[in-house]
Structures are given as C-alpha cells and as structure tokens.
Amino acid sequence: MHFLLLELRCECYLISLALFLVSGDNDFCPGGFLYQNPKESSLLLSLGSHVDVYFPPRKRSRISAPFVVSGVAKRQPSIEILPDECLFEVFRHLSGGNERSACACVSKRWLMLLSSIHRDEICTIATTPFVEPENRSESQKADEFAQSKEKGEFGNLNEIKPEDEEFQVADSHGYLSRCLEGKKASDVRLAAISVGTASHGGLGKLSIRGNTSTRRLTDLGLKAISRGCPSLGVLSLWNLSSVGDEGLSAIASSCHSLEKLDLCHCPAITDKGLIAIAMNCPNLTSVTIESCLNVGNGSLQAFGRNCPNLKCITIKNCPLVGDQGIASLFSSAGQTLTKANFQALNISDVSLAVIGHYGSAMIDLALGGLHSVNERGFWVMGKGQGLQKLKSLSIASCRGVSDVGLEALGNSCPNLKVFGLQKCPLVSDNGVVSFAKAVGSLQSLRLEDCHRITQFGVLGILANCGGKLKAFALANCLGIQDIDFELPLASSCFSLRSLTIRNCPGLANMGLAMLGRLCPSLTHVDLSGLPGITDYGILPLIQRSGVGLVKVNLSGCVHLTDNLVAEISKLHGDTLEILNLDGCKCITDVSLKAIARNCSLLSELGVSQCGITDSGIAILAGAKQLFLRVLSVAGCSLVSDKSLPSLVLLGKSLVGLNIQHCHGISCGTVNQLLEHLWRCDILS
C-alpha cells in the first residue's frame, strides 16, 4: 500500500505541476503556452470525474496495467498519456532529490526518464526556461529506452530503491560508495543509483564486478551515472564485456573529478574511450588496466600528455601495448609517476632503457612476464641512472635478468629498501651477493624459485647486507643444500628480525644451525615445509635469539618433538604471540602443557594433524593466564566429543576455531559449539 499511495501522490502532484507548466504562467515558462490553443491541453491531461479502476496492493504496481472492476476497460491514466518530452520537463522542475527518488520508484519509464536528466538541466529557480537535454531529442531517448526494454536490461524494478540503497561514506568529502556484483549490475540499477545519490551527498566511488550472469549492463547504465553523478572520483569495472567506449566517453564528458580508474577484462573498451578519459579528467592520479585486449599504445600516450597528476599506473596482459606506449608515457610523465607495474606486455629492451632514463620520480616498480626483454635491457635500465629515488623493486618471470643486470640495478638504486626476485633462472649467488653489496640500504629481500642460488649465496647476502637488512625470505629454491663451515663472528647480521625459509627441501640441520649463529636478533621465524630438519637444527636458532621470538611457524616439519616446543615456551614464553605446529605429527599433549604454563601472551595456536588428545584441550582450557584468539586442531583424530566443555570454556576468548576432519567430534557437538560460541567463526 505504501507504493500505491506514493504512486497516486506522485501522479496528482505531477498532474498539477504539468497543468501549471502548460497554463502559460510566464513565471514558470516565459516562452508562453506549450500549445497555441490552451484547450488542447485537455487532450494531454484528461481529468475525469471518477476513475473506475482498482490497483491491487502489490509492491510498486504499474500504472499502465490496471485491473478493470466494472468490466469495461478504461483508457490509460492521464499521467501515462503524457509524452516523454512533457514528463522530462516536469521532472526537471522537482524541487529536491527526495522528490525525484520518490518518482523513480513509480515505474521503469519514470526511472529511466529521471536518470536521463543531467544535473545541469535541473531547475533551481522557477524562471528556468525549457531546455533540450544534452542536445538529444526525446525520440532518441525513447529509442534507447525501448532498446533496453527489448533486451530485458531493466530487470526487476521491485529490487530498486533509489532512496534506500545501502550507501557507505567513501571519503572525507562525504561522497558515497557503491559496489555491484553479478546479477545486481544492470542499467536500471545504475539509473537508480544516479537518481538516488543526489539526496545523499553524491556518488564518489563506483565498483562493478561482473560475471557470467551480468548481462543487463551496457553503456546506457554508465551514461545514467555520468548524467547524475558528476562527483564520481573512483570507477572500477571488472569482467564487463558489454561496456565499451561509448559508456566510458560519457563518464569522461561529465565526471571531470575522476581520480582513479580500474579496468579489468573489459574487451569492448579500446583506446578511444581511454583517450576521452585522459583528455577530460585532468585530476586522474591512478590507472589500472588489466586484460583489456583492445587497449594499445594510444591510451598510454594520451595519459602521459594530458594527465599532469598521474602518479600510479598498472598495465597487465594487454598485448597491444608496446615500446611506443611505454616510451611516450615516461618521456611525458616520468617526472610525476611514482608507481608502475608492467606485466605480460610485448615490450623490449627499449622500454626498460626509457624507464631507467626518465623514471626520475619512480619509487615503486614491478616488472613481470616480460619475455621479450633480454639481459641488455636490465643492464641499460640500471646504467640509465634515473632510478635514484626507487625504494621498492620486484622482478618476476623475466628470463633476461642476469647477474650483470642485477649488479647494474644495485649500483643505480642507492635508496632501494625492498627487493623481490621470482622465477629468474639466470641469477646465481654472484648476482645476489653483488646486488646486496651495491645497494647498501636494503631492508627486505625475497628470493623465490631461483634455483641457481645456493647456501653460499644466502650466507653471502647476510654477511654483506650493510647492516640494515631486517627481513629475508627464501622460498622454493631447490639449489639450497646442507653445508657446514665456520664463519667469523663479524659476519653476523644483527639487524635481521624476520627469517623465512619455505619449501627448500635441501636445507637440513647443519645449514639451519649456521643461519642461527648468523642471526642473533630474530623475532619472526618461518621454517615451514622443511622435512629434513629436527630439534637439533632449530635449537641453535632458538637459543641464539636474545630479543624474544614473537611469531614462530614450523608447520610441515614432521620430525620435531615436544622437547623443542618446551624449549621455545621456556625461552620465549613471555614474548611469543603466534605458534604454528600444523603437521608436526610428533607433537603431543606434553607440548600443550608447556605452552599453557609459559606462554601468557599467545593468541594464535595451530596444532592441526598433531598427536594431541582431549586431555591436551582440557589443559589449554584450564590455563588461567592463556587467552587464545585462534585455535586450530583440524585433523586431530584423538580429539572427540569429550572436549566440548573445554572448547566452550576456551570459546570465551576465541574468534576462530578450526575442527575440520576431527572425526571424533560428532555433528551434535558441532551444533552445540555453534550455539554456545556464536561470536566465534567455526570451521567444521
């Protein structure tokens, strides 16, 4: 009934307003009558003595489809006889956003007409003359409306509530944020957002995530946004095959405040739409284009020449982007670009040479999957001496990276603090050690899938890092083998706080013990996936740390025992916050007893696939000084329904509990846990 009353109220109000507009009142329409003969207005607005129709109390009933009570079909309500031109003129005279939002709820026709009104066309004073919106005839608008209707792009209007959309404040300016996913993304919903945001402060951020079910979103939806949301600052479009240059050009023509643009898997968008954005949005600071197969060099040239505030750019998997685009971008905007990410592009050594020469403002640079770049490209980029301000560098899956190029980069980046190298088969110990010596200011180093790096390279890095290295990570490096030789104490890396070695099966006790002697100040240790180590290898590292371990991950080290856990809890119980022992099959309730007695600050504990029992869970629950936030006992076959009281007691502080594949815990117990631990996320 609410929408019935709203519909009737809007009809009466608009009929009165329409009569006022066609009455010849010069205060409202200084041009005089819309019709030369005022009597002809009765043909437009027929006012009968009664209306012999009945509208059932349906949500958002359509005026154009009444139910006949008397058995004789009556003509359409007078408000539906109004042509689009007249309704447009009526709607643009509505006094505020709330009134327009209310009218948008009446019918699809009204909603689409309201969304076709540009902000500049809305009357603010009564003397505003009649205008033709956007230089388009109303017949053209009607054609667009009909085309959308034929394609089924309107969806269900009952789902659209322009005034009741769940908006969130996007920034300090009070603008709103809206995110649409899947079936919710449609032209009619964007039209509703365009109309509804006017009375909520304006739209600042729009994010649309499409999928295979997103079929009702076209350029018409973006056109509606462009007309009603000039304050739009952030636009993100993902997986939208039906949105193209026309919609993007409409955004460019009206949303001049646009600062961030993110496009991913939008095959219909080409250089034409992006050039329009570049030429009309001077405030653009960040651009991300991923897997847009029809975007090429023209877009990058336009961004470089027309966007003086551009600071961040990401281009991934765009095969039409080549050296010409990269060269033009950096030669024009190299003094403002501070962050760049280029992956899977058809660029050569030329692009890297240009980046190395013109990237004077570059702080963060990521390069990946550049298969056409050779060894000379990275060497020339380093020799360009333009990356003096670079602080973060990441290189992945680039076969052209070699020891020579790496050393040249180290010499040209004196302020580099973070460096990552992944899947670069030509890099060896000599390259990484020379790089570490040349940089001097390196604080974080990560090497992954670099199989020519051995333990000599690792020890060389730690001994020549300049005393500033804080984090070192080594993952999936098959060249690491167990060796043992004496190193002078002067080689110790006292600055290192975090050591990560994952899935390096060749590393065993001797090599790990040597690393322990080199790193006396560790607080974070991750030695996961090292099946060859035992208590003997880890104990020197644990005992050597003098500042107190905070986070320890030993998952997948299948030969560790309770003795090691007891030593860790004894030496570092006052500082330890996170302990992961998942997959350590030799760990039993003895370890839980040591943890409960000594680790007063522990918040996360993982003992999945370990040999713990109900007694161990009871020990944890009885520790008064222990306040666990996350507990994982997945795959512990000896934990049963008897642990229910203990888990409920632990649940007073838990926010996460993993009991998956605990076959001793029945469904009934799981249901009771869900009932008692309603604040805790339970995986079962």
Automatic annotation (TrEMBL):
Pfam families: DUF7885, F-box-like
GO annotation (BP), single: ethylene-activated signaling pathway
Presence of the UniProt keyword 4Fe-4S in the record: no
Domain of life: Eukaryota
Compartment list: Nucleus
Chief subcellular location: nucleus
Domain F-box residues, every copy: 82-122
Name under which the protein is recorded: EIN3-binding F-box protein 1
UniProt lineage: Eukaryota, Viridiplantae, Streptophyta, Embryophyta, Tracheophyta
